[in-house]
Specification:
This protein is of the alpha+beta class. It folds into 4 domains: 91 residues, Gyrase A, domain 2 (2-Layer Sandwich), CATH 3.30.1360.60; 132 residues, no CATH class; 155 residues, no CATH class; 159 residues, Glucose Permease (Domain IIA). The chain is 50% helix and 15% strand. The protein has an 8-stranded antiparallel beta sheet. It has a 4-stranded antiparallel beta sheet with strand order 1-2-4-3. Strands 5-6-7 form a 3-stranded antiparallel beta sheet. The two termini are 30 Å apart. It holds the Pfam family PTS_EIIA_1. Its main location: membrane.
C-alpha cells in the first residue's frame, strides 16, 4: 500500500466497512475491532497489505490486526475515515457496556481474561516509559553511582526526583487501573478513578497517626487499625496494588446499573456519581481494599513458594507458556502479578527473569528471519522482520515478531520452543529475580539479579532459536518454494515496465481509478479527476524497476516538441499534480495544432482508449507522458483519434493522436498539454524551454544524465 491513509482505507473496506464496527481500540502493536458480523472480515485480503503483519480472530466478534510500532498512526487514520468519527462519538454517548453482550458470547473464563487485558492495555505506554526510567537508575546502580534500593530520605535530591518520575506511574497505578477497568465495564471511568484515589489522600493516610499499629493479615506488611462509624478499618499502603481497584470497578458497575434504574434520567448526572462515591469509597476501604490486597499477595506468595521449591520448574514453565498466552492476550494478568510481587514484602518478582528467555528466543527467530530475507533479497519479509527486531531488542515487545512470523509460519514454533526451554533452564538454575517492573529488552538487563545469570539465559535462548531458524529455516519446503516463486514473479513483473505503465495509464479502467486517485492525493493533489489518471501513471512508473538510459554519465540530450504551440512552465497547468511536479518534471504546451507526433524514435508504452494521453519510451531510455488537456478523460474519447497501439515501434514524426481542440473547449476543459518525463529521478536535471512558440520537433527539454552513472 502507498500510504497510511491507503492502508487504513484498505483495512476498513475489508472488515465490512464502518457499519460493521461496533467498537475500535488499539494497543502497543494491534488494532482491535469488535465487529457486528465477524464473517464479513476478509482475512486474506487484509493480510495482502505489506503493512499488515497479521490478523487474528478473537472470540466470535473480535478481530485483531497487527500493525507493529506505528499502530497509533493507523488508529488515528482509520478514526478519521468517513463513518468512524460519528461511530466513535456515538459510542461515547452510549450508556451500554462496551463489551456489547460479551457475557453471552464468551465463557466466564474468556470474559475475565478479556476484561483484565483491556484494563491494563491502555496504561501500557506509561508502564513502558517508566520501566526505561527504572532501567537508567538500575544501570547507575550497577555502575556504582547510586544505590537503587537506598532509602529515599537518604538519596540525593536529584535521585529522589528521578525515582519520583517512575513512581508516578507505579505508585498511582491503582487510580489508572480503576479508570480503565470502569471504562471497560461501562461504568463512569472518573468515578472509577476517584474510588481508589480516596485511599491515597493525606486524610486517609493521616488516620494512621491515631490508629493502632498491628501485624496485618496482608502478608506481614505494616498496617494500622482504626474505627470509622464504629467499625474496624485497616489503613494500608495501596501504592502499586492492582486487585483492589479492579474489584472496586466490578462492584461500581453493578452499583451504577442499579442506581440508574431507580433515579430519574433528568437528575442521574448529579445523583448517580454522588451515591456511587458515597457507597463505593467506604465499601472499598472497609472490604474490597483488604480483600484485594490479600488476593494479590496470596498469588505472589504462591509463586514465591514454587520458586523456593524449585526455581527450575518456574524457570521452564514460564517461557514455555508465554508463546501460547500472548496470542490469546492471556499474559496481561501475569503483569498484574509481577507488580503485586514487587510491592510485596519480598520486593522482587520471579516471573520477569524466565519471561526474558521467551522474549529473546522470539527475538532470535525474528533476527534469523531478517538475515534470511536479506540473503534471499526478500523486501517484504525484510521489512516485517526488521520491525520485529527493533521492537523486540530495544523495546521488549514481542507482538510484531509473533504475528509477523511465528503465527504465520507454524514451523517457526519448533525453532522457538527449544530456545525458550534452554533459556528457561539457565534462568531457573540462577533463580533470577527482578527488582523493578521492566520490559525485557537489551536495555533492561540491569534490573535482573544476578545480571550475569540473566545475560547467559537470554543469550542461550536467543542463540538457540537464531541458529535453528537460520540453518533449518522457519518455513516448510512448500512454503519456502511458494515464497521464492512469488518473489521471482514479482521481479519479472517489475522488470516489465510496459505492463506496469499500461496498467497505470489505463484510467478508464475502474480498477485503476482508485490507486490513481490515491497517488494524486499523496502528492497533495486530490480532487482532480483528470489528473488522477496521470497520477496513476507516474505513481506506478516510479515503483517499477528503474529503467537504464542510453546516455553516458554527465551527457546531455534534447527532446523535441510532440505538438505545435506555445511552451509554458508546468506551474501554469491548472492541476496541482502536474503543476507541483509530483508526477515528474517537464513543460506544457498550449496547442495551436491538432496532432501529437513522436518526438523521437520510441516504443509506445500505453495508448489510451480515450485518446487523451499516450506514454512513450524513447530509444535513449527517456520515458514521456503526453497528456492532452486537463480532465479530458471525462470526454470518453469523443474528439480524439488514436493512431498507434501499445508496444508499437514508432519513428520520429509519426502521428500518434489527433484531437479536436474545439470539442475540448466546448466540453469545458482546458487543452493545455503537459509533457512529463516520468522517470525524472534517473536524471541529474530536467530543464524546460518555456516562453516560446514551437513547431513539431523543436527543442523543448534538456536532460542531463548523472555524472556517476
Amino acid at each position: 500500500m502507498a500510504s497510511t491513509t491507503t492502508t487504513s482505507q484498505h483495512i476498513l473496506d475489508h472488515i465490512g466497512g464502518p457499519q460493521n464496527v461496533t467498537s475500535f481500540t488499539h494497543c502497543a502493536t494491534r488494532l482491535r475491532f469488535q465487529l457486528a458480523d465477524q464473517a464479513k472480515a476478509d482475512i486474506e485480503a487484509l493480510e495482502s497489505d505489506p503493512a499488515v503483519l497479521g490478523v487474528v480472530k478473537q472470540g466470535s466478534t473480535g478481530l485483531q490486526i497487527i500493525m507493529g510500532g506505528g499502530v497509533a498512526e493507523y488508529y488515528q487514520s482509520i478514526n478519521a475515515l468517513p463513518g468512524m468519527g460519528e461511530k466513535k462519538a456515538a459510542a461515547k454517548d452510549s450508556s451500554k457496556k462496551e463489551y456489547g453482550g460479551v457475557r453471552g458470547k464468551y465463557s466466564w473464563v474468556d470474559y475475565c481474561f478479556e476484561f483484565l487485558s483491556d484494563t491494563f492495555r491502555p496504561v501500557l505506554w506509561a508502564l513502558l516509559g517508566a520501566s526505561l526510567i527504572i532501567t537508567i537508575l538500575v544501570l547507575l546502580d550497577t555502575a556504582g553511582v547510586q544505590d537503587f534500593r537506598q532509602e529515599m530520605t537518604e538519596q540525593p535530591p536529584t535521585f529522589q526526583f528521578l525515582h519520583a518520575m517512575w513512581r508516578s506511574v507505579f505508585y498511582f497505578l491503582p487510580i489508572m487501573v480503576g479508570a480503565t477497568a470502569a471504562r471497560k465495564l461501562g461504568a463512569n471511568e472518573w468515578v472509577g478513578a476517584a474510588i481508589p484515589a480516596a485511599l491515597f489522600t493525606p486524610e486517609f493516610m493521616g488516620m494512621k497517626e491515631s490508629a493502632q499499629e498491628i501485624a496485618t493479615n496482608v502478608e506481614g506488611q505494616s498496617a494500622f487499625k482504626t474505627e470509622v462509624f464504629h467499625l474496624p478499618m485497616y489503613i494500608s499502603d495501596y501504592g502499586g496494588q492492582v486487585f483492589p481497584p479492579i474489584f472496586a470497578a466490578v462492584f461500581l458497575y453493578f452499583v451504577e446499573k442499579g442506581l440508574k434504574k431507580i433515579i430519574p434520567g433528568a437528575v442521574q448526572m448529579v445523583f448517580v456519581p454522588f451515591f456511587s462515591l458515597l457507597i463505593m469509597i467506604p465499601f472499598t476501604a472497609f472490604v474490597v481494599g483488604p480483600i484485594g490486597l490479600k488476593a494479590g499477595n496470596g498469588i505472589a506468595t504462591m509463586l514465591y513458594a514454587i520458586n523456593d521449591f524449585s526455581p527450575w520448574v518456574l524457570g521452564i514453565v514460564i517461557p514455555l507458556l508465554y508463546p501460547f498466552l500472548v496470542p490469546l492476550g492471556l499474559h496481561w494478568p501475569l503483569n498484574a502479578i509481577m507488580i503485586v510481587s514487587l510491592n510485596s514484602p519480598a520486593g522482587y518478582d520471579v516471573i520477569q527473569g524466565p519471561m526474558g528467555a521467551w522474549n529473546f528466543a522470539c527475538f532470535g527467530v525474528i533476527s534469523a528471519v531478517f538475515f534470511l530475507s536479506v540473503k534471499e533479497h526478500n523486501p517484504q519479509m525484510r521489512q516485517v522482520s526488521a520491525g520485529g527486531v527493533f521492537a523486540g531488542l530495544l523495546g521488549g515487545i514481542s507482538e510484531p515478531s509473533l504475528y509477523g512470523v511465528l503465527l504465520r509460519y507454524r514451523r517457526s514454533y519448533y525453532r522457538l520452543l527449544p530456545g525458550c526451554f534452554l533459556g528457561g533452564v539457565v534462568a531457573g538454575f540462577f533463580g533470577i529475580k527482578a527488582h523493578a517492573f521492566v520490559f525485557t529488552s537489551v536495555l533492561t538487563v540491569g534490573a535482573m539479579d544476578p545480571i550475569g545469570g540473566y545475560v547467559l539465559a537470554i543469550v542461550v535462548a536467543f542463540a538457540t532459536s537464531f541458529f535453528l531458524t537460520f540453518f533449518l529455516d522457519y518455513r516448510t519446503p512448500e512454503e519456502k518454494e511458494a515464497m521464492l516463486a512469488q518473489m521471482e514473479a514479482e521481479r519479472a513483473d517489475a522488470s516489465s515496465a510496459e505492463d506496469e505503465r499500461v496498467t497505470a495509464l489505463n484510467d478508464t479502467d475502474s480498477a485503476a481509478a482508485a490507486p490513481a486517485a490515491g497517488a494524486a492525493a499523496g502528492a497533495g493533489a486530490a480532487g482532480a479527476a483528470g489528473a488522477a489518471g496521470a497520477a496513476g501513471a507516474t505513481a506506478t512508473a516510479t515503483q517499477a524497476k528503474p529503467v537504464k538510459t542510453a546516455l553516458e554519465p554527465g551527457a546531455t540530450t534534447q527532446v523535441g516538441a510532440p505538438l505545435a504551440g506555445e511552451v509554458v512552465s508546468l506551474s501554469e497547468v491548472p492541476d496541482p499534480a502536474f503543476a507541483g511536479g509530483a508526477l515528474g518534471q517537464g513543460v506544457a504546451i498550449k496547442p495551436s495544432g491538432n496532432t501529437i507526433v513522436a518526438p523521437a524514435d520510441a516504443t509506445v508504452l500505453a495508448a489510451q482508449k480515450t485518446g487523451h494521453a499516450v506514454g512513450l519510451r524513447l530509444d535513449n531510455g527517456i520515458d514521456l507522458l503526453i497528456h492532452i488537456g486537463i480532465d479530458t478523460v471525462q470526454m470518453g474519447g469523443e474528439g480524439f483519434t488514436v493512431h498507434v497501439e501499445r508496444k508499437q515501434k514508432v519513428k520520429a514524426g509519426d502521428t500518434l493522436i489527433t484531437f479536436d481542440r474545439q470539442k475540448i473547449h466546448e466540453a469545458g476543459y482546458p487543452d493545455i498539454t503537459p509533457i512529463i518525463v516520468t522517470n525524472t529521478k534517473k536524471f541529474a536535471s530536467v530543464e524546460g524551454v518555456s516562453g516560446s512558440t514551437v513547431a513539431e520537433g523543436d527543442h523543448i527539454l534538456t536532460l542531463t544524465a548523472p555524472s556517476g552513472e
